[in-house]
Fold this protein.
Amino acid sequence: MLSTQIKMTNQSEHQKIWDLLPWYINQSLGPVEHAIVKNHIKTCITCRIELNQQEQVFKEIQQADLLQQVSQASFAQLKKRIETQPELCSEKQYTAPKSDLIFFPFQIRFLGFVKYTALAASLLLLASPFLLHSLFVQPEMAGSYRTLAAATESTDNTSNIVRIVFADHPDTEQIDVIVNSVSGHIVKGPSPNGVYEVQIGNHQTDSQQVNDAILRLRDHSSVIFAELAQGLSVSE
Amino acid sequence: MIQKSFSSQEQQAKERHLIAEAAAGNGKAFEQLYQLYFNRLYQFIFHINRHHDCIEEIINDVMYVVWEKAGTYDQTCRPSTWILGIAYLKSLKSAKQSTKREDQSVEFNDELDYFPDRGSHWVSQLEDSNWLEVALEKLSTEQRAVVEMTYFQGLHYSEISEIMQCPENTVKTRMFHARKILAKFFLELNNRG
């Protein structure tokens, strides 16, 4: 009974001192606590081993260069970022890919090729009814909307209308000179956005002449925009 | 090896004087205090939240509080306990706000579970990285704070408990778990060597 009590007291004291070792190492303990620890480690082999180990850890920590630690911590963050975003850098894996998932690099490329080919074929299949339809009903589709790329020759009197935007708000006289230089005359404008609509020549003017006029206008330093009105959005 | 000047009576008297001057609006004295604490705070904050990108901001937040509240410093505790206490709370707040850092708290777990098995990726990490960096990363914010204050700042556990606003036994328990993890990593490194 008595021996158990002594053992427990010793055990409790040992634990208490074991807990104090870091502060014994950093020499912040008061004289009383310091003396207790010092006496205990003379007889306790466990605490002596622990003390020796912690002193080495303490020494390592003290010797660690802060800047080096900062750079290592930064690199760890970067590494984590790379590792958590594999889809953005699939070509460049930070760690070696798991062999049971990817056998060969070309396997990925082949799978990718098959995937995209299948996708393209599906889209082509879906679009085929519209493509076939457009081949047969082209004349009836002559609506008012037309893109610049699909612009066709038109016989109406808007085919030689050009929209122009001038730089630095030149005066009326200067605008007239520029417009006259391409055989044009203002039919509309300026809009609140400064857009002028200019008719090039007359209804007999062909598209080549209009295109030439547009090119000459674009070369002019006072013109920042010149484009055929037909096919452009109605928004000014 | 610990900078003993941190806790010397002379140093404390100087810091108390600078705080009193700052309370009176002396900008020069405050600047001196700032310079005196910059490196210390930098290290302290870095070891707690592990993100260096916001350290200067936190230091300025801490020193702003010091400037604003210098008049309320009652000199019952060491100047370092007061300033590091503010820095600890700011660092903790910053660490919690950081979404980059995963919660790796091992405070209430058996630290042995966190020791790398041979063949795991942490083992290889030990080979090509600094063991201390890897080991510190394995500690919880609170555990790192205790290690920092003990082994880097040389503070007594009672001061640490004051700074962390927790019982002394909690400080010892945190240190208990932290030193186990550090020692395991250190031993593993030595065995390799």
Observations:
- Chain B touches chain A at residues 1-2, 7, 42-43, 46, 50-52, 100, 121, 129-133, 137, 147, 150-152, 154-157, 159, 172, 175-176, 179, 182-183, 186-187 (CB under 8 Å).
- The mean pLDDT of chain B is 80.
- Chain B has one domain: 9-98+131-191.
